Known about the structure:
Order of helices and strands: EEEHEEHEHHHEHEEE
Number of domains: 1
CATH superfamily: P-loop containing nucleotide triphosphate hydrolases
Keywords: ATP-binding, Nucleotide-binding, Transport
CATH class: Alpha Beta
Domain ABC transporter: 13-236
Strand content: 25-35%
Strand order of the largest sheet: 6-7-8-3-9-10
Protein name: Putative ABC transport system ATP-binding protein
Pfam family, one: ABC_tran
GO molecular function: ATP binding; ATP hydrolysis activity
Oligomer: single chain
Amino acid sequence: MDKNHPIHHQTIIRIEKLHKKFFTGKHLFTALRDIDLEIKATDFVVIYGPSGCGKTTLLNIIAGIDQPTAGEVEIRDTEIFELSDDQRGIFRSKKMGYIHQFPLWIRSLNTIENIAFPLLIEGEAEDYALSCAQNTMEELKITDLAKLKPTSLSGGEQQRASLARAIVTNPWIILADEPTGNLDSHASDTLMKYLKQLNKRHKRTIILVTHNQSYWPLGTRRIEMKDGLIVKDTSTG
């Protein structure tokens, strides 16, 4: 296991009294209310619940993308909202990978260059970044996609490339927001297999938001949300 990775029994994410409110038009909407949550370093957390219950908002706050209205988010002794925007962006780039339902790509770059990009913005040399991207693509069996534009790939290929980009920096945490929502069952199963391997073999923390009930058993922990609240939190492994 990577010597820089958190010890597997430790709490990696601690959330206390988290609230998030925002305006939709003239109306104040409460997206999250009084969330308390601790996640261990080797948890595979599956978050589910109806649309609008706060799942994606919670993920974006953990990533430091959205600011909470109140509360604290601590990742390995770092209170991320005490960091400046730039510091938080660097922290996210190094410690977290994010897989979206619809990946965003730099259209002028090919697939391997897109995968290497997080390392380049950290200041790594281009040769090193491309070598890491190549190794990551080999792990995910997508080296044949290296020179293609990611926008030309199938949905399943794009999501595997998105996973490669998410893990190329060797992050502690992988956040996945409905990553199979636009995929067929075979591509979905393949992506889930890789996420499970990252958790079980490589001891990475996985936080997966999904509506697909067939993937809920993959989690070592299942969290149900409703109306901005955690209404059920079940450990399964």
